[in-house]
Amino acid sequence: MVLSARTKVAPMLVLGIETSCDETAAAIVSDEGERIRSNVVFSQLDEHRPFGGVVPEIAARAHLDRLDGLIEEALGEAGVGFGDLSAVAATGGPGLIGGVMVGVTAAKAIAYAWGLPFVAVNHLEGHALSPRLTEDVAFPYLLLLVSGGHCQLLAVEGPGRYVRFGTTIDDAAGEAFDKGAKLIGLGYPGGPAIERAAALGDAARIPLPRPLRGRPGCDFSFSGLKTALRQAASDLRIDGMLAEQDSADLAASLQAAIGDCLVDRTRHAILRFRAHYAEGSDLVVAGGVAANGALRGQLQSLAGEMGMRFVAPPMALCTDNGAMIAWAGLERLKLGFSDGLDFAPRPRWPLDPTAPAAIGAGVKA
Amino acid sequence: MEDLLKVLAFDTSGAGCSAAVLVEGRLLAHRAEILGRGHAERIMPMIREVMEEAGVEPRSLDLLGVTTGPGAFTGLRIGLAAARGLALAIGAPALGITSFDALATEVPEEARSGRLLVVAIDSKRDAPFLAVYGKKGEMTGTASPVMPADWEIWLPEGPLLLVGDAAARLAQALPGRDILVAPPRLPDAAAVARLAEAAFRRGERPAARPLYLRAPDTTLSRSQP
Hints:
Largest sheet of chain B: 5 strands, mixed
Shape of chain B: globular
Radius of gyration of chain B: 18 Å
Strand content of chain A: 15-25%
CATH class of the largest domain in chain B: Alpha Beta
Helix content of chain B: 25-40%
Distance between the termini of chain B: 62 Å
Strand order of the largest sheet of chain B: 3-2-1-4-5
Helix content of chain A: 40-55%
Oligomer: heterodimer
Number of strands of chain B: 10
CATH class of the largest domain in chain A: Alpha Beta
Number of helices of chain A: 12
Number of strands of chain A: 10
Largest interface: A-B, 43 and 39 residues
Number of domains of chain A: 2
Structural class of chain B: alpha/beta
CATH superfamily of the largest domain in chain A: ATPase, nucleotide binding domain
Shape of chain A: globular
Radius of gyration of chain A: 21 Å
């Protein structure tokens, strides 16, 4: 058979499923025209709020309850049927394994029923490639991945090809926000709560440490910051209560300290990226913490100062979603990668398997 | 094979992993393995194996059957996610069968010889899940997790026949009672397939929703208002 230049190749359509933390999500993404055909997210915030954090068993139960309905909704909104799909992608890890298993198993079942390839996507790769979903970002680029579960600086050379420059050695940045908000009594989730309170506070009032700032390398540490914040908060409490202004000042000081740490370590990573790669001048920030406007501003100025282009996905694509999983699946599929029905969900799945594990960070690095 | 009722059923609710294809009441393919763990890796390949052996195309299935528990939470969810994913993809209903019914249905009438049937399922905690079946093979009362101290009070009087993977534990703990322990220990896909088909033919559509019988282990946040 001779393929003429006019042979029309149908656009690829991939269903993406995300169930690794506390968002149940499904999306349809294409490589042509409008890329995001649908992107449906059910946030389990209300289910977890009474517990002040994500409860794995509650998350897993909610994923199973909601997932099939969300997939149906994603297909409906995109106006496509299973028969139009090129593949089914699902987060295969890292994350809360009970939820990952629900998403992976549903994805395998759909792929099997329609004879489609199944693609297991590394959740972190979903975030890492998400800027390419909405903008023209070429490899290689420098990525700051900041979420509730991760805090890493990586050179992204292509799908499946990452060089880790640095990672948190204890808490993730998003964890510092969540734990900080809990200490100040601002509730859950901590990121948006801190950002709101910080807008009314004085960031210079409470002296908090900037762990590892000025030290060589690109690693992060946030657990000492949490300890200092706890001390500062207890010094300000009267009869166990914090005044509203004190809460705001604590929040602003915490946000500034986290921001300064991120900027300092990212500056080192930019220098290192330049030294390693002749091409590439994009600094990409992704992950839930990238939704924080103040931090975005700080990183944007850093990028400008260092001659890098600053790229951040739209807010809705920073937090967990199915579109980024579908997109990463699509990119992998184009390179010929897919997975068997015997794929085993991976609670720990580093992007750069050659980088040493940071013991204090558990599955986070 | 066009007009025949084609059923695929599977179980991942406990230590076992099984899948079966039933066509018009005939068991055409069946696999059962003791896994302990690893259901997420094994179940879909096992489903493909029995489907190929039975010569049934996935989208020609009329019905899916799956165990709803009680059982290991993670395993239950794997089976239910597969069933609901398949049901959505092929447009056929997925019917949920309890582990109690799947175990009870496999005890032949003659084996009971006048005894009341008690299904006892391990919960990985002190309290196994118990359910009593009356003479007509129907569950009587409410299935519950029961602490060892309450077994004596909870169990009905008279001679009993116990099945399930916690049956031996109960029998050992109650030497004064007239208790016989019989197979099966674990739910099996073939039984689930038969029960799903029977329910379907009766016009019943029991939902493929998990029967956890136990709330998640959690503590409320102290710093919440």
